[in-house]
Specification:
Chain lengths: ~120, ~110
């Protein structure tokens, strides 16, 4: 069965970076794009970008360009999301979410979420 | 940040039907059939329940249905059950620059 297992909670100071991992299992890792979506406390969902695990090609929305980096390690079927220059408004639960295929525009499996808290 | 709007809450009794609307623009919902809906319980990850406007993933009950008209997408839950009490989000592809927008979510309460 498809599983996405994310790394544990993080606490960071403003200005620092956070890196979250998402280890995939139960399917062919390189056949499905992977997205990252975040959710601030009590708020809605926000798309942060995606990576093609086969090529490493990434796509980020304008809001996060220059601040987010998504990478992958095909040997361990793991994708990573690093967000830099953190501010308090980046406090959120960060989810990895598998694409329905190769950019099918929906997210069919989700990780359990990783809470990142930004606080001085 | 959200460009999609929907009612913050809807409620219904068991067995009734409820419909959640999600209003966008001609640049997102009106321009693409890449509309998806997600169900989220408190403290849990979202779950896909509708994709491509009206398709249901395997395992999702057929009481969940989706549709679109113009710039508005809708999710209907027929035969409401207690387990349907959750937050529901719609999402639309919106092309380059932003790519995907979610709405603010609608809380469904089963009376």
């Amino acid at each position: 069965q498809v599983q996405l297992l994310q790394s544990g909670a993080e606490v960071k100071k403003p200005g620092a970076s956070v890196k979250v991992s998402c280890k995939a299992s139960g399917y062919t890792f390189t056949n499905y794009y992977m997205h990252w979506v975040r959710q601030a406390p009590g708020q809605g969902l926000e798309w942060m970008g995606m990576i093609n695990p086969s090529t490493g090609f990434t796509t980020y929305p304008h809001k996060f360009q220059g601040r987010v980096t998504m990478t992958r390690d095909t040997s361990t079927s793991t994708v990573y999301m690093e967000l830099s220059r953190l501010i308090s408004e980046d406090t959120a639960v960060y989810y990895c979410a598998r694409d329905g295929g190769s950019w099918k525009h929906y997210f069919d499996y989700w990780g359990q979420g990783t809470l990142a808290t930004v606080s001085s | 940040q959200s460009a999609l709007t929907q009612p913050r809450s809807v409620s219904g009794s068991p067995g009734q039907s409820v419909t959640i609307s999600c209003t966008g623009t001609s640049s997102d919902i009106g321009d693409y059939n890449y509309i998806s809906w997600y169900q989220q319980y408190p403290g849990k990850a979202p779950k896909l329940i509708i994709y491509d406007v009206s398709k249901r993933p395997s395992g999702v009950p057929d009481r969940f249905s989706g549709s679109k008209s113009g710039n508005t997408a809708s999710l209907t839950i027929s035969g409401l059950q207690a387990e349907d009490e959750a937050e529901y989000y719609c999402c639309s592809y919106t092309g380059s620059f932003t790519f995907y927008v979610f709405d603010t979510g609608t809380k469904v309460t089963v009376l």
